[in-house]
Specification:
- This protein is an alpha+beta fold.
- Helices cover 22% and strands 26% of the residues.
- It has 8 helices and 13 strands.
- The chain has helices at residues 2-5, 27-37, 68-76, 90-93, 119-125, 154-158, 216-225, 258-269; strands at 9-13, 41-45, 56-59, 80-81, 108-112, 144-146, 162-166, 170-171, 177-185, 188-196, 206-211, 229-237, 240-247.
- The strands form 3 sheets. Strands 8, 9, 10, 11, 12 and 13 form a 6-stranded antiparallel sheet that branches. A 4-stranded parallel sheet has the order 2-1-3-4, covered by helices on one side.
- Helix 2 crosses helix 8.
- It is globular, with a radius of gyration of 19 Å.
């Protein structure tokens, strides 16, 4: 397969403010090393340069909602990975948002509408009023859980940069929290079950991590939404999967273990059928 793609031209669409070396801080940067070793010509693409002749374009603009200029570039490319993933704000993708006066009686969580606390937008544009909530939410660890929506301060509901969502955790018998991280590119996928004592599970609070099968309904949702590449975070709450984060630009990850190298090759080479689609 690597011989069949040697010489193909892959463009990675990045934000104009990101810089030419932007992909180094993402998992796609690790994947790109495999692609280059297999003979693929990998180059960054942004609106500030003329669109080169490409065999495949990879949408990797790390903002929650793409501007028209990026949508136009995607529309010009012959083949695109994640070409339909243009807006991943929670107000667009979540099925569990609530408003004041909701009939929901369970706990809720307050989050930023923008992905990952709005950090990518602030990194590109600064702490302007369109990117930084006046209520101090700057990272996922700032998300707050309340026993009911009635306890949520009114200013959180009134803040257009925040959303209020049903809190539907997955718990172990001893009360710990679980998160399932579904990572994929094309037909190559991996899912991991992460356990933590904290309701907001993150890299700083992991107690254990183990591979699990992805829930079929989550895979079906991914395909229905048009995701070719990315990461979904979800839980299984009372037997039903609940997706609460969809990410098209997963962060950097690399190590030297044989297991990781095998996964990396499998994931990277799952890109190659896209050159023919």
């Amino acid at each position: 397969m690597s011989q069949a793609v040697a010489g193909r031209r892959l463009g990675i669409l990045i934000h104009a403010r990101s810089g030419r070396h932007a992909i180094r801080g993402y998992f796609i940067g690790t994947l790109a090393k495999v692609w280059a070793a297999d003979g693929i010509v990998v180059r960054p693409v942004s609106p500030e340069r003329r669109l080169p002749h490409l065999d495949l374009l990879f949408n990797h603009v790390d903002v929650s909602c793409l501007d028209d200029v990026y949508r136009k570039i995607i529309g010009m490319a012959p083949r695109v990975v994640n070409g339909g993933i243009l807006d991943i704000r929670k107000s667009v993708v979540s099925n569990h948002l609530i408003e004041r006066g909701s009939a929901w009686t369970g706990p809720v969580i307050v989050k930023t509408d923008l992905n990952f606390g709005g950090y990518p937008e602030r990194a590109l544009f600064g702490d302007g009023p369109d990117n930084l909530s006046p209520n101090g939410f700057v990272k996922p660890l700032d998300y707050q859980v309340f026993d009911s929506w009635q306890e949520v301060p009114r200013e959180f509901f009134d803040d257009p940069l925040l959303v209020v969502e049903k809190f539907l955790p997955e718990r172990t018998p001893d009360g710990r929290y679980r998160l399932r991280s579904y990572n994929f590119l094309g037909d190559a996928e991996d899912c991991f079950l992460i356990t933590s004592t904290q309701p907001i599970v993150n890299s700083h609070s992991i107690e254990s991590i183990e591979p699990v099968e992805v829930h079929e309904a989550v895979r079906a949702t991914r395909l229905a939404r048009g995701f070719d590449y990315g990461k979904f975070d979800y839980v299984v709450h009372e037997g039903e999967p609940v997706i609460f984060d969809t990410n098209k630009t997963p962060g950097f990850f690399d190590d030297d273990s044989p297991e990781f190298r095998a996964m990396l090759l499998r994931r990277a080479r799952a890109l190659y059928p896209f050159f023919e689609r």
